Structures are given as structure tokens and as C-alpha cells.
Automatic annotation (TrEMBL):
Belongs to the GTP-binding SRP family. SRP54 subfamily. It is an enzyme of class 3 (hydrolase). GO terms for cellular component: signal recognition particle. GO terms for biological process: SRP-dependent cotranslational protein targeting to membrane. This is signal-recognition-particle GTPase. It comes from Candidatus Parvarchaeum acidophilus ARMAN-5_'5-way FS'. Residues 2-84 form the Signal recognition particle SRP54 helical bundle domain. Residues 96-269 form the AAA+ ATPase domain. Residues 97-288 form the SRP54-type proteins GTP-binding domain. Keywords: Cytoplasm, GTP-binding, Hydrolase, Nucleotide-binding, Ribonucleoprotein, RNA-binding, Signal recognition particle. The keyword Cell membrane does not apply. Its EC number is 3.6.5.4.
């Protein structure tokens, strides 16, 4: 995932919050979040305002009682969304040919980004032209040319003078819907390159100027974003290098401070490692809160209905093997038990839980066959299953006595896990199915 290090730390903090009792860990969790964002290079003033707003919102929601952990998580989520962009932003292609000028630092991945952006629009039916204007970096045009062949997009430009390259290509612009111009990388303090980019802008007359900035730039991102914005009136931002160890907080808050919106993020080196930036989905993933929505969407796709009484018994840890059978059958359609648990931030992440889920994932199909071989009474009253019944069930399911015993042991452990889990998380999911616990 993009911003993996920062995300992992924030997810752990949210899990600690959701698995806590009372409100004793709230301030501890907020401190952890603040530390994670500080080390993730979030601008100091922006961070101070963010944490102040979060604490104020918690206080305002407190009233006379405790604030539900889910509400606190929601407050953290909503305030982070405001920082990273709040609303979806797209480049509005409102005329043709629509000219996009990409600018940015040297080494920001701008040339690859030009090809990714071209591929994005090509897939959506636009006729795209790549315009190579980076005459500063050796072999920049050749790199863009190779990328254009991969995505089957036309390319023009090159040579030693970007202004001449624009003028030479202008006659062909009418044959395309979108022109994506890749300019030379520059530092905003480099006066010679600043003069060049102004000349490119005045000659090309772009409809949109997009800044390409690496997510690992850190605190220096603010200087660069502000400088480019003042020089060229930046319309949009594309973040690159968001995978791996990139902190990313500096680039995100720099965009927030400047007012320019992040539109796309590059998530890897391949052409298709490129996606639209959706602030709400991004923060959900960052905090590990996207799971409930993902599970709901998948369940709806598979037309899965929830047995209300069975669901209530599972939530309370009072279920029998009939309930387990129903949950396993649904789980196979949605995904593995382990994957489902990963999407549920309230599920304990202890070694015992992971071991239990690993075994369930390995044997879930066999467990269903075993339960198919049980009588209704045995499914409703697992305590009645003695050694002779275990032997009969094993033979009927084509498994072994050991695996039948393992299912029964897993069943007991599952009841313990559910009693340890944050039931509000599961109750919240069930409410989305119209079931009140």
C-alpha cells in the first residue's frame, strides 16, 4: 500500500483504541498518532491544528458520558480527510486539444508519470500525444519514447530546444484530444530552469499545469510546492514514490497548504501502478478502517443475506456449529477467514488469533464437509459429540478423527476469540445489513 510505514503505525493505534475498554487509552492513542504523523513529515503547524481539532471534536461529543471508540475513530478519520484533500479532484477535460504541462523536481519520476497519465487517458478513449520537452536530462526523450511504445501512444518533441519542439508539434495538436508535455526536472531555486519553464508555459499555453512531486520529499515539499504554485499557478498534484518506505506526510500537507489538489498517486514502477486519488478511501486505508465497507460491498455482490438470530449468537459468543457452518459458507464467497479478519480492526491481532485463522484458512473446505456429515442435533449441541461419533463423522466426510477433533477445538477457540473481540465493530457491520444487536 502507499505510505506503508505511516499506515502501519496508524493502524496499530486505531486497533489499540478500538480494543480498549473505557476511555483510558484515548490520549495515549492520540499521542501515538501525533508521533507517527510527525515522523511521517507532516507539517508542524498543520499537525498542531489537526490534533487540536481532533481533541476539540472529542470533547464536544463527550457530553455527560463516554465517547464511543468508533466515534473517536470517526473523528480522527474526518479530520485527516480534511488534511489530505476532503473532496475528490479530477482534471476536467473541458476542451480539445487539452494541454497538460507536467513540471517537477529532477528525479521525481516525472517522465514515467507522463506515460502513466497518458495510459490512463488512452484507456478512457482519448487520443493522447506525449510531448517530450526534457532537453536537459540525457536520454530523457528516448526513455519517453520507449514508454510510449509500451502503451501505444504517439510521441513528438525531443531535440535541444523545448520551445522549438513545441512549435514544431503544434500543427499536429488538432489530431489529438489530450497533449501531455514532459518538461525538464528542476528545483524551484534554479533560475535558469525557471526561465525555461516560463518560456514553455508561454509557448504551449497549457490548460492545466500539474506538479509531480515524490512523496518521500519530506519537509522540503512545502518549499517546492509553494514555489511552483507561485511561479506557475499549479492546478493539480501527482504524488510519486508512495510505495515502500515513503513517509509522504510532507507532500500531502504541502498540497493542503498550497491549495493545489492531489489528483493521482503513483503506487509503483510499472505503467499500471497509478490510481486516482480519493481522499476518503485513502484515509480509510491509511487507518485500516476500509474493511467494513469492503466486506459489505463484497457481500452485496455475492447476494449474501445474514441470518439475524445466528449473527446475534456469533456476536455474543453463544453460537453453535450450525452458526459456524453458515459463517464458513458465507466466508468462502467473500474471502478467507484471515482476509476477513484483517479487514476488521476490532479483531485481536495476537499470535493465538493469527494461528487460529491460519488453520481455519487451511482447512475451511474440509471443515464444511465434516459438518455436512453431522446430524442436526450434533450441530446444535457440539458437546454431545463423543469418540464414537467423531469416528463416524470422520468416515462420513472422508477425513480423519484428528481433523474432526481439530474442528471442535477451533470451535471452542472461536467462541473465546469472539468474547475477546470488540463487538461494536461486528455490530456496526450487521447494522449495515439492517440488523440491530
Amino acid at each position: 500500500m502507499a505510505f506503508e510505514n505511516l499506515s502501519n503505525r496508524l493502524k496499530e493505534s486505531i486497533k489499540k483504541l478500538l480494543n480498549s475498554t473505557g476511555n483510558e487509552k484515548v490520549e495515549e492513542v492520540l499521542q501515538e498518532i501525533q508521533t507517527a504523523l510527525t515522523e511521517g513529515d507532516v507539517d508542524k503547524n498543520t499537525l498542531n491544528n489537526l490534533m487540536s481539532n481532533i481533541r476539540d471534536d472529542i470533547k464536544n461529543n463527550k457530553g455527560k458520558g463516554l465517547v464511543a471508540k468508533e466515534k473517536i475513530a470517526d473523528i480522527i478519520y474526518n479530520n485527516l480527510v480534511k488534511i489530505v484533500g476532503n473532496d475528490e479532484t479530477k482534471i476536467n477535460i473541458d476542451s480539445v486539444p487539452f494541454k497538460i504541462l507536467l513540471v517537477g523536481l529532477f528525479g521525481s519520476g516525472k517522465t514515467t508519470t507522463a506515460a502513466k497519465l497518458a495510459n490512463y487517458y488512452r484507456k478512457r478513449g482519448y487520443r493522447v500525444l506525449l510531448l517530450g520537452l526534457d532537453t536537459f536530462r540525457p536520454a530523457a526523450y528516448q526513455q519517453l519514447e520507449q514508454l510510449s511504445k509500451q502503451i501505444n501512444v504517439k510521441i513528438m518533441g525531443g531535440g535541444s530546444d523545448p520551445i522549438k519542439a513545441i512549435k514544431s508539434a503544434m500543427g499536429s495538436f488538432k489530431n489529438f484530444d489530450i497533449i501531455i508535455a514532459d518538461s525538464a526536472g528542476r528545483d524551484i531555486l534554479d533560475k535558469e530552469l525557471i526561465k525555461e519553464i516560463k518560456g514553455i508555459r508561454d509557448t504551449l499555453k497549457p490548460n492545466n499545469v500539474t506538479l509531480v512531486i515524490p512523496a518521500d520529499l519530506g519537509q522540503n515539499a512545502s518549499v517546492q510546492v509553494k514555489g511552483f504554485h507561485e511561479l506557475l499557478d499549479i492546478n493539480n498534484i501527482i504524488l510519486t514514490k508512495t510505495d515502500g518506505t515513503a513517509n509522504g506526510g510532507g507532500a500531502l500537507t504541502a498540497a493542503y497548504i498550497s491549495g493545489a489538489k492531489v489528483t493521482f498517486i503513483g503506487t509503483g514502477e510499472k505503467i499500471n501502478d497509478f490510481e486516482e486519488f480519493n481522499p476518503k478511501k485513502f484515509v480509510s486505508k491509511l487507518l485500516g478502517l476500509e474493511g467494513l465497507e469492503s466486506l459489505l460491498e463484497k457481500a452485496q455482490e455475492e447476494n449474501i443475506t445474514v441470518n439475524e438470530e445466528s449473527a446475534k449468537r456469533v456476536i455474543k459468543g453463544e453460537f453453535n456449529l450450525l452458526d459456524v457452518y453458515e459463517q464458513y459458507s458465507s466466508a468462502i464467497k467473500i474471502g478467507s477467514p484471515k482476509k476477513i479478519a484483517e479487514l476488521m480492526p476490532g479483531v485481536p491481532s495476537s499470535g493465538k488469533t493469527k494461528e487460529l485463522l491460519d488453520r481455519q484458512e487451511e482447512n475451511i473446505g474440509k471443515f464444511i464437509h465434516i459438518m455436512d456429515s453431522m446430524t442436526k442435533n450434533e450441530l446444535e449441541e457440539p458437546k454431545t459429540i463423543d469418540s464414537s461419533r467423531i469416528n463416524r463423522i470422520a468416515k462420513g466426510s472422508g477425513t480423519s478423527d484428528e481433523l474432526v477433533r481439530e474442528l471442535l477445538e477451533q470451535y471452542k477457540k472461536m467462541k473465546t476469540v469472539m468474547k475477546m473481540s470488540n463487538n461494536r465493530q461486528f455490530s456496526g457491520l450487521l447494522r449495515r445489513f439492517g440488523i440491530k444487536i
